Amino acid sequence: MSKHVRLAMLGCGGIAKAHLNAYKAIWERGGRNWNIVATCDTKIERAEDFAKQIEAFSGKKPRTYSDMNQMIKDGDMDGVDICAPHGYHHILAVPCLEAKLDVMVEKPLGITCKASQIIIDAAERNGRLLAVAENLRRYLGQRATYWMINEAKMLGNMRMFFAQKAFFWNLPMQAEAMQWRAERLVGGGGLIFDSGAHYMDTIRYLFGDAQTVFAQMRTYERRTFQHPTRGDVVADVEDSWTATIVFKSGVVGVWSFFPAARGKSFCNVVYYGDKASFEDLSGDVFHGLRTEGELTFEDGKKRNYKDIEIEFLVSLSPEQKAKLFPLGLTDGFHLECYDFIDAIANRRRPDVDGWDAFKAKAIAEAIYESAWTGKSVTIEDCINGKVQEYQKAINEKWGIK
Ligand SMILES: NC(=O)c1ccc[n+]([C@@H]2O[C@H](COP(=O)([O-])OP(=O)(O)OC[C@H]3O[C@@H](n4cnc5c(N)ncnc54)[C@H](O)[C@@H]3O)[C@@H](O)[C@H]2O)c1
Questions:
Q1: Domain residues of the chain, as ranges?
Q2: pLDDT tens digits along 94-108
Q3: Predicted confidence (pLDDT) at residue 331 exceeds the cutoff of 80
Q4: Stretch 259-268: mean pLDDT, rounded?
Q5: Which of 101, 136, 234, 327 is 20 to 30 A from 174 in CA distance terms?
């Protein structure tokens, strides 16, 4: 890190706590060429709580705000880390970018494709860095899997993958952070593009750009929450789907999530090449490739995934290791926050930029559009705005033109 970087944290709720822990970890490991000068949340007590915690580890108390515009007016910042609900990403990111601040925004980039494009346009127009807080590809597991598939080519030429989970999940909706996720117009959709944004980034990281999607989705379970002013509200976001995703490379993937399954449960996540398969045993179709896995070769021989991680680490030069895991950090949140600070300090492209996030997010939007229209949808048509039957009402609700 070279230049001193002054940051603000905008949105001090659930995931911002992971960002706060990340900044603390970076500080404690000696990466100190930065400080947090402001915290902001519409619930001022959250901004104040964050400011106290920041003072406890760094010795300096940030200013606190409930209004982003006042924070921008007071100046004195280089970058803003935005951890607000999806629908606010463009509303908060654009004024920051227009004020010539660099921005890191949580996934998914914008609530719709148009919102994502608006954020990217503002960054490009103002010559600012736009990073997206995608933590999963930064863990050793995904780095090693990328190397195993794309560099060591242990599976041969990639063919198909299946990421499917069926179980019963009585997801409670009462918590505040679940309520804005329950309604299509408020949250933009359900898990396809919430936790799904992670898996879309994972598969794009591993297999390159996607081309076409055909999908079906359903809302099987009746889930409700008590809204502070509207009384009983029924969640209308999807709870189940199955999507076939075709990549430009020819790889075909099937991604299904069915948490409304009565009876038998299963989780099956397997990647197939023309020489071997790799089974991800983490039991997760959103945040996988982080714990257990097994390779099976065509002659039946097997290799434990942990061996692959070791082989990958041994293959790295000290410079490569320092680039992937600076200061010895290994947690994805710690690494994404370090990457943002370092990108600002050195005026370099962040590891996951706006276009990376948009191209990944567009796969999720293509799933919605395909399920909504009953047709196969191309990623390109989602990115360039030709297809927006599903997103139209969401754009209208959030004033996105
Ligand atoms: N990377 C991950 O693993 C991960 C996990 C969870 C959430 N997220 C993402 O983080 C974002 C936030 O999710 P969350 O679970 O932390 O939500 P949350 O509801 O827990 O927190 C959001 C915070 O933003 C504040 N806020 C809302 N509008 C604001 C405004 N206009 N100005 C300032 N503050 C405002 C709220 O008061 C709240 O404190 C979402 O985009 C979500 O997709 C990422």
A1: 5-135+325-352, 137-323
A2: 999 999 999 999 999
A3: yes
A4: 97
A5: 136
141-160 average pLDDT score: 97
- The C-alpha atoms of residue 246 and residue 225 are separated, in whole angstroms, by 37
- Cα-to-centroid distance, 181 and ligand 1 (Å): 11
Among 10, 19, 40, 42, which is best to mutate for testing ligand 1, by the most ligand atoms less than 8 A from CB?
Answer: 42
Q: What is the pLDDT of residues 188-227, one digit of tens each?
A: 999 999 999 999 999 999 999 999 999 999 999 999 989 8
Pocket flag, ligand 1, residue 35 (CB < 6 Å): no
Looking at every residue in the chain, the average pLDDT score rounds to 96
Element (H, E) at 217: strand 210-218
What pLDDT score does 173 carry?
A: 83
Please name which of 73, 122, 77 lies closest in space to residue 101, comparing C-alpha atoms. Answer: 77
User: Could you tell me if the CB of 175 is within 6 A of ligand 1?
Assistant: no
Summarised one tens digit per residue, pLDDT across range 88-140 is 999 999 999 999 999 999 999 999 999 999 999 999 999 999 999 999 999 99
pLDDT at 1 over 60: no
Q: Is the beta carbon of 111 within 6 A of some atom in ligand 1?
A: no
Q: Whose CA is nearest to atom 6 of ligand 1?
A: 15
The model carries a pTM of 0.97
Q: Is 270 helix (H, G, I), strand (E, B) or coil?
A: strand
Q: Which atom of ligand 1 is nearest to the CA of 287?
A: 3
DSSP-H helix ranges across 169-278: 176-179, 184-187, 196-207
Measured by CA distance, the residue closest to atom 13 of ligand 1 is: 85
One-letter amino acid at 221 equals E
Distance, CA of 343 to CA of 353 (rounded, Å)? 11
Average pLDDT score over residue span 335-341: 98
Contacts of 240 (CB under 8 A, 6+ apart): 217, 218, 219, 220, 257, 258, 259, 260
Alpha helices in 75-139 (DSSP H): 89-98, 113-125
**Does the domain formed by 5-135+325-352 have CATH 3.40.50.720?**
yes
Taking the centre of ligand 1 as the mean of its atom positions, its distance from the CA of residue 11, in whole angstroms, is: 6
**CATH topology match: 5-135+325-352 vs 137-323:** no
pLDDT of res. 2: 59
Domain 137-323: which topology?
Answer: Dihydrodipicolinate Reductase; domain 2 (3.30.360)
Q: Is the CB of 332 under 6 A from ligand 1?
A: no
